[in-house]
Write a structure and sequence with these properties.
The protein is α/β, with parallel strands linked by helices. It has 16 helices and eleven strands. The strands form three sheets. A six-stranded parallel beta sheet has the order 3-2-1-4-5-6, sandwiched between helices. A three-stranded antiparallel beta sheet has the order 7-8-9, with helices on one face. The chain is elongated and about 80 Å long.
């Protein structure tokens, strides 16, 4: 599968595990960076998540999040392990890890110690919490951060069920991983400008709270507050997919003129706009629940395909409410070759998604499959001038 070579001159020493850090380094590898993933003998814990019994040493999540990397297994307490990581750091632009501060100190890999090895290193620490707060040093996982950041309060605001619930994706890990990507790239630019080491902290709690409050600070952003937290459009119970005769559809008229067109032209129901609740822009804005109820009434009469066709003709944004299996049949994703079938050297056939960002006109490179545990240990040791006896 093709990636890009825009970061082909960047080498990354990667000691991250699970999702947060590995999603960052996978994204950088997709852009051409050479990523050496340093693992313990048992491998990154995420290797075994969902692993079928007949698979050798990797589950499906490892296949997706560690592609394009090389794997080495070093005993960090042994002399050769200590020397190998030292030499790898000497030859790297970035050292990234998600090891808790007390453990990284025991390994001798704090920022100051790594800087002594490589004076212009970009040192990226993926943390649960910023080092200056009282939560510093605590372990953190996606579930914990979703709870602390108030993400678990969002679904109750939509459906009225008061029980806090997780958003069903590892979004705290992945969003924090993307924060780590831009932070790493910015730090590399700063390194190139100054020739000095850059120490970056990427704390999950702060990243996700920042992410959520971009819109959900809402009227509480003023002092004194002029209203509650939460952008009301996002937590509106009526803002949901609509049922059709044979499935579900998502519509996004948004601007008022499109709502009017929806009733007058698409639904052929201009009489609905004579209702005092929908007779003017203000009424339609404040009676969105009733308006969606009326739209739902009409949508049940025709198929999803019918509504998609007439909405497209009216220039009203709409799309099917897909389930995951539908994605591989999506005509747009098929046209851009988003899904590509590949053969893994040990695991056999599998599907891989194309990197979503394209660098138009830039050289491309083949992205290698996710590595087996320690697959490149001997190769990398030889590059570092070492031999594992």
């Amino acid at each position: 599968m093709p990636g890009t070579s825009v970061l082909s001159d960047i080498r990354i020493a990667d000691m991250t595990t699970v999702i947060f850090g590995p999603y960052c380094t996978q994204t950088l590898a997709d852009m051409g960076a050479e990523v050496v993933k340093v693992e313990p003998a048992t491998g990154d814990d995420f290797r075994n998540v969902g692993k079928p019994a007949n698979n050798k040493n990797m589950g499906p999540c490892h296949m997706t999040i560690n592609r394009g990397k090389r794997s080495v297994v070093w005993d960090m307490k042994s002399d050769i392990g200590k020397e190998a990581i030292r030499r790898l750091i000497e030859r790297s632009d970035v050292f990234i890890h998600n090891i808790r501060p007390d453990a990284v100190a025991r390994l001798g890999l704090t920022f100051e110690e790594v800087k002594a090895i490589k004076p212009d290193i970009v040192y990226v620490h993926c943390l649960g919490f910023g080092s200056e707060g009282p939560y510093a040093g605590r372990p953190a996982y996606d579930d914990l951060i979703q709870g602390l950041s108030a993400a678990t309060s969002l679904l109750p605001k939509v459906d009225g069920n008061p029980r806090p619930r997780f958003i069903p994706t590892a979004f705290a890990d992945k969003v924090s991983g993307l924060h780590a990507v831009y932070a790493t790239l910015a730090a590399l630019r700063q390194r190139d400008r100054t020739g000095e080491a850059v120490h970056v902290e990427v704390p999950m709690f702060e990243c996700i709270t920042h992410f959520l409050l971009e819109e959900h600070f809402y009227e509480a952003v003023f002092d004194p507050p002029v209203g509650p937290f939460c952008y009301q459009r996002q937590v509106d119970p009526c803002r949901q997919p609509l049922q059709t005769k044979d499935g579900w559809i998502v519509i996004a008229p948004y601007v008022d003129a499109r709502w009017v067109k929806l009733f007058e032209e698409v639904l052929s129901a201009p009489e609905e706009l004579k209702d005092e609740r929908l007779a003017d822009r203000r009424g339609r804005y404040y009676n969105m629940d009733y308006m969606m109820e009326r739209v739902q009434h009409y949508f049940l009469a025709q198929t999803t395909e019918h509504w998609l066709n007439v909405l497209a003709e009216a220039d009203i944004p709409a799309g099917p409410a897909n389930d995951f299996p539908d994605l591989q049949k999506d005509p747009h994703l098929k046209a851009v070759n988003f899904f590509q079938h590949r053969e893994h050297p040990t695991e056999g056939g599998y599907w891989e998604t194309q990197p979503p960002v394209q660098f138009v006109g830039q050289p491309r490179r083949e992205i290698t499959p996710a590595p087996s545990i320690g697959e490149h240990t001997d190769e990398v040791l030889a590059e570092l001038g070492l031999k594992d006896d």
